[in-house]
Write a structure and sequence with these properties.
By secondary structure, the protein is an all-alpha fold. The chain has six helices and no strands.
Length: about 130
């Protein structure tokens, strides 16, 4: 996965920001990467979906809800704003850690901190709603 992100230059924030600049100097290269990713995922998903366990024995977990709720919209908004401001999203940022760039390391550290801060909130909510 990381190899394909690097090969497609998705780890380069300038490429991402060029893709997001629809009304300026738009660069469609990442759109091609997305279409290829969706196509390859669709094929693999069709093969894996009927299975109950993964090749290594782990349970395959597929979300049972397709509801669009406030949590999903909020998460998408935070993701989109972060992607637009920095040109980075979680996968490419993690793949870029090896470059040792200060901005990449700061982004990943901030992302990890946010996950550590937010996760207990969702765990408590789930525990309350289960009782």
């Amino acid at each position: 996965m990381a190899t394909s992100l690097v090969a497609a230059h998705v780890t380069d924030p300038r490429m991402v920001l060029g893709f997001l600049d629809v009304f300026g100097q738009w660069n469609p290269a990442i759109a091609y990467f997305m279409v290829g990713s969706i196509a390859s995922f669709s094929v693999v998903y069709r093969l894996v979906r009927p299975r109950e366990v993964a090749v290594l024995g782990d349970e395959i977990c597929v979300p049972s809800s397709s509801a669009i709720d406030a949590r999903m919209v909020g998460g998408a908004a935070v993701f989109g704003v972060g992607w637009g401001l920095t040109g980075l999203c979680p996968g490419p940022a993690i793949a870029s850690i090896a470059t040792g760039g200060v901005s990449i390391l700061a982004f990943v550290a901030a992302m990890a901190a946010a996950m550590l801060i937010v996760q207990p909130t969702f765990t408590r909510r789930a525990a309350r709603s289960a009782t």
